[in-house]
Amino acid sequence: MASFPIASALQSWGWGEVKRLSGWTPRRLAVYREGELFGAAQILLRSFPGGLALAYVPRGPALRRLEDLPAVARALARGVRGTHLLLEPEAGLPAEAPPPTFPGLLPEEPVQPAFSLWLDLTQGEEALIKGMKEMHRRNARLALKRVELSVEGEEAFFRFLPPF
Question: What is the pTM of this model?
Protein backbone atom coordinates (compact mmCIF):
# COMPACT_ATOMS: atom_id res chain seq x y z
CA MET A 1 0.00 0.00 0.00
CA ALA A 2 2.80 2.38 0.85
CA SER A 3 4.03 2.35 -2.75
CA PHE A 4 0.76 3.73 -4.16
CA PRO A 5 0.41 7.50 -4.58
CA ILE A 6 -3.40 7.18 -4.32
CA ALA A 7 -4.14 5.40 -1.02
CA SER A 8 -5.86 5.92 2.32
CA ALA A 9 -5.58 4.88 5.97
CA LEU A 10 -9.01 3.28 5.54
CA GLN A 11 -7.27 0.73 3.34
CA SER A 12 -4.94 -0.26 6.18
CA TRP A 13 -4.87 -3.69 7.79
CA GLY A 14 -5.74 -2.14 11.15
CA TRP A 15 -8.89 -0.46 9.81
CA GLY A 16 -10.08 -3.78 8.38
CA GLU A 17 -9.62 -5.43 11.76
CA VAL A 18 -11.56 -2.63 13.46
CA LYS A 19 -14.40 -3.10 10.96
CA ARG A 20 -14.33 -6.87 11.57
CA LEU A 21 -15.49 -6.11 15.14
CA SER A 22 -18.67 -4.53 13.74
CA GLY A 23 -19.64 -7.40 11.45
CA TRP A 24 -17.67 -6.75 8.26
CA THR A 25 -15.34 -9.33 6.73
CA PRO A 26 -12.16 -7.74 5.35
CA ARG A 27 -10.61 -9.25 2.24
CA ARG A 28 -7.35 -7.94 0.83
CA LEU A 29 -6.68 -8.22 -2.91
CA ALA A 30 -3.79 -7.19 -5.14
CA VAL A 31 -4.29 -6.53 -8.85
CA TYR A 32 -1.42 -7.27 -11.23
CA ARG A 33 -0.94 -6.31 -14.87
CA GLU A 34 1.85 -8.03 -16.78
CA GLY A 35 3.48 -9.09 -13.52
CA GLU A 36 3.50 -5.57 -12.02
CA LEU A 37 1.40 -4.50 -9.03
CA PHE A 38 -1.32 -2.34 -10.58
CA GLY A 39 -3.80 -1.76 -7.76
CA ALA A 40 -4.76 -3.07 -4.32
CA ALA A 41 -7.82 -2.99 -2.13
CA GLN A 42 -9.12 -3.93 1.23
CA ILE A 43 -12.69 -4.92 0.51
CA LEU A 44 -15.15 -5.01 3.38
CA LEU A 45 -17.83 -7.65 2.81
CA ARG A 46 -21.26 -7.79 4.41
CA SER A 47 -24.18 -10.09 3.61
CA PHE A 48 -27.80 -8.97 3.67
CA PRO A 49 -31.12 -10.82 3.54
CA GLY A 50 -32.26 -12.05 0.15
CA GLY A 51 -28.82 -13.16 -0.98
CA LEU A 52 -27.50 -9.61 -1.34
CA ALA A 53 -23.89 -8.87 -0.48
CA LEU A 54 -22.10 -5.54 -0.34
CA ALA A 55 -18.41 -5.35 -1.25
CA TYR A 56 -17.26 -1.94 0.01
CA VAL A 57 -13.83 -0.40 -0.59
CA PRO A 58 -13.58 2.60 1.80
CA ARG A 59 -11.42 5.35 0.35
CA GLY A 60 -10.02 2.92 -2.16
CA PRO A 61 -8.77 1.10 -4.08
CA ALA A 62 -5.11 2.07 -3.92
CA LEU A 63 -4.00 3.17 -7.39
CA ARG A 64 -0.99 4.47 -9.27
CA ARG A 65 -3.20 6.74 -11.39
CA LEU A 66 -6.90 7.61 -11.08
CA GLU A 67 -7.32 6.66 -14.75
CA ASP A 68 -6.58 3.03 -13.76
CA LEU A 69 -9.79 2.83 -11.71
CA PRO A 70 -12.03 1.08 -14.32
CA ALA A 71 -9.52 -1.72 -14.96
CA VAL A 72 -8.82 -2.23 -11.25
CA ALA A 73 -12.58 -2.17 -10.50
CA ARG A 74 -13.22 -4.92 -13.06
CA ALA A 75 -10.47 -7.07 -11.54
CA LEU A 76 -11.77 -6.53 -8.00
CA ALA A 77 -15.33 -7.40 -9.08
CA ARG A 78 -14.04 -10.74 -10.38
CA GLY A 79 -12.22 -11.36 -7.09
CA VAL A 80 -15.19 -11.00 -4.71
CA ARG A 81 -18.68 -12.40 -4.49
CA GLY A 82 -20.81 -9.34 -4.04
CA THR A 83 -24.01 -8.14 -5.62
CA HIS A 84 -22.83 -4.56 -5.26
CA LEU A 85 -19.23 -3.24 -5.38
CA LEU A 86 -18.87 0.25 -3.93
CA LEU A 87 -15.56 2.06 -4.54
CA GLU A 88 -14.50 5.40 -3.04
CA PRO A 89 -11.06 6.22 -4.45
CA GLU A 90 -9.02 9.07 -3.03
CA ALA A 91 -9.29 11.38 -6.02
CA GLY A 92 -7.31 14.23 -4.45
CA LEU A 93 -9.43 16.83 -6.24
CA PRO A 94 -10.32 20.32 -4.96
CA ALA A 95 -13.70 20.62 -3.21
CA GLU A 96 -15.18 22.64 -6.09
CA ALA A 97 -14.15 20.14 -8.77
CA PRO A 98 -16.83 17.74 -10.02
CA PRO A 99 -16.21 14.07 -9.25
CA PRO A 100 -14.54 12.15 -12.07
CA THR A 101 -16.65 9.88 -14.26
CA PHE A 102 -15.57 6.65 -15.93
CA PRO A 103 -17.24 4.58 -18.64
CA GLY A 104 -18.84 1.48 -17.16
CA LEU A 105 -18.85 2.81 -13.58
CA LEU A 106 -21.94 4.40 -12.09
CA PRO A 107 -21.69 7.32 -9.66
CA GLU A 108 -22.81 6.41 -6.16
CA GLU A 109 -23.54 8.38 -2.99
CA PRO A 110 -20.34 8.10 -0.90
CA VAL A 111 -20.30 6.48 2.53
CA GLN A 112 -17.20 8.32 3.78
CA PRO A 113 -16.98 12.13 3.85
CA ALA A 114 -15.81 13.43 0.49
CA PHE A 115 -12.92 15.40 1.99
CA SER A 116 -10.44 14.99 4.80
CA LEU A 117 -9.32 17.73 7.15
CA TRP A 118 -5.63 18.06 7.87
CA LEU A 119 -4.76 19.45 11.28
CA ASP A 120 -1.40 20.57 12.60
CA LEU A 121 -1.21 18.45 15.74
CA THR A 122 1.97 20.17 16.88
CA GLN A 123 -0.03 23.22 18.01
CA GLY A 124 -1.37 21.44 21.09
CA GLU A 125 -4.75 20.36 22.37
CA GLU A 126 -6.03 23.76 23.53
CA ALA A 127 -5.15 25.47 20.24
CA LEU A 128 -6.91 22.72 18.30
CA ILE A 129 -10.04 23.01 20.44
CA LYS A 130 -9.99 26.81 20.22
CA GLY A 131 -10.04 26.55 16.41
CA MET A 132 -13.27 24.51 16.42
CA LYS A 133 -16.84 25.72 16.10
CA GLU A 134 -18.63 26.00 19.45
CA MET A 135 -20.66 22.78 19.07
CA HIS A 136 -17.54 20.81 18.11
CA ARG A 137 -15.63 22.32 21.04
CA ARG A 138 -18.37 21.21 23.42
CA ASN A 139 -18.43 17.69 21.98
CA ALA A 140 -14.62 17.42 22.06
CA ARG A 141 -14.46 18.52 25.71
CA LEU A 142 -17.24 16.10 26.64
CA ALA A 143 -15.38 13.26 24.89
CA LEU A 144 -12.17 14.19 26.72
CA LYS A 145 -14.03 13.84 30.04
CA ARG A 146 -15.57 10.48 29.13
CA VAL A 147 -12.67 8.77 27.37
CA GLU A 148 -9.16 8.12 28.60
CA LEU A 149 -6.70 9.07 25.89
CA SER A 150 -3.29 7.52 25.47
CA VAL A 151 -0.69 8.92 23.12
CA GLU A 152 2.08 6.38 22.74
CA GLY A 153 4.24 8.11 20.19
CA GLU A 154 4.86 7.78 16.49
CA GLU A 155 5.56 4.04 16.66
CA ALA A 156 1.93 3.39 17.74
CA PHE A 157 0.68 4.84 14.45
CA PHE A 158 2.66 2.35 12.40
CA ARG A 159 1.31 -0.57 14.45
CA PHE A 160 -2.18 0.51 13.35
CA LEU A 161 -1.26 1.34 9.76
CA PRO A 162 1.07 -1.35 8.42
CA PRO A 163 1.04 -1.84 4.66
CA PHE A 164 -0.58 -5.08 3.55
Answer: 0.70
